[in-house]
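Record type: monomer structure entry
Structure origin: computed from sequence
Chain ID: A
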Amino acid sequence: MSTDSASPDSLLSVIIHHLPVIQIVLPLLGAPLIVLAGRKAAWFLGTLFASAALAIALGLLSLASGGTPLVYELGGWSAPVGIVYSVDVLAGLMLTIVSGVGAVVMLYSRLSVQDEIPEDRHHYFYAMLLLCMSGLMGICITGDAFNVFVFLEISSLSAYALIAMGRSPRALVASYRYLVMGTIGGTFVLLGIGMIYMMTGTLNIADLANRIPVVADKTTVRAAFAFMTVGSLVKLALFPLHFWLPNAYTFAPSVVSAFLSATATKVSFYVLVRVIFTIFGISLIAQTLQMYNLLLLLSLIAIVMGSLVAIFQHNVKRLLAYSSLAQIGYFVLGLALHNQSALTGSLIHLFNHALMKGGLFMVVGCMVYRVGGSRLEDLAGIGKRMPLTTLAFVVGGVGMIGVPLTAGFVSKWFLVLGALDAGLWWVAGIVLFASLLAVVYIWRIIEVAYFREPADATNIEAPLGMLIPTWVMIGASVVFGIWTGPMLHIASKAAATLLGGLQ
């Protein structure tokens, strides 16, 4: 081997070239390694692999932000014959969300898992968490339509197992309901993929975008569009396809609730965006415009009904679950308005909501660790007993409402601008009304925490191992609410690229 080929610069170039596949393979191999290593090393190895995945994702996002998507050919086979991984700015953002949440949640998980999961299952739990993380990232990075389904199933199957590990017997029921709905959604996606393969003879996403216009007038292609859209909406849990989500978030272990609420629905929305803008795009513009009207209606119902139902919940995890249904409505609203401002707001809300909702579920996990439950009566006076933990909930809750200087405000501001750009001032009014509803359900928890007397005044603040990661998530929602430039640049660039595909 020559000196040049062994130089540090050459080695670095090789590593950078292989980063897309390392992003997926690393946690995918980490899962069985954790099982083999056993319980004692499970948390350390899980945190190590998740942190490495975050570092790689940040590197890929930095490279993709330069403007040119990164394309990696598996096995050296070129597209469309071979399978490729492709990282543009939107995929880089999604990889960062999934790996970032995964790394922080892994760091947080040690004590919570010890409290909620039987010890003999700890290594299986961390292995499943890494598998779920790997599957979600695979969905975001693959350039092959069938592999979207494969990674969707990897993430879903591991999510079912994770939810079933909850200590309540109802966790099994919640997991089974999710399995049924998830299977229906996955089957719809697979049927759609099969139909477009039958019509085009390719599974490469970029190649599909070129070949579908030739056969766009065929009924089979329209059916494929419908199947893939509905399948994505089931996974996304948009009203009225949301029935699996509340129980899944409520009865899953606290770590799982935090991870899934911050990642799974975001990735499902990403799939929906790719289906509409990248795969079909201008080919089915008439059907897409009709679908926008339906999505607009469903998103507004989800925003209002999710917020209203959240107000009447007595379990804080269930309250946050219904709040998530409303937030999913915000994602889809930005898509349905289909203009630059609205889609920018929708994409940046993926990032902002991951920070806020993941952080809020971590706060509740801290409270469950100390008081043993998440019902409102369990949390009476908790603000006096766990002041730093409860303050984190207040800060995260303020972000959910959309108060200025929080990340939630940035998202809603652009959604309102998008509604006004579309000439739908009444939609902007509904967004503001839903924010008032958020004030009500967040205030219910604040009132119980600060204005009711605790049965025991002993200070039971959460351990630092849980408190610090929680504040990392909550604090980041404030940081990115003030320092808006980087995320706005990424989201607006991704929105412009997506909308450009329809022109």
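Annotation 1: The chain has one domain: 8-500.
Annotation 2: The radius of gyration is 22 Å.
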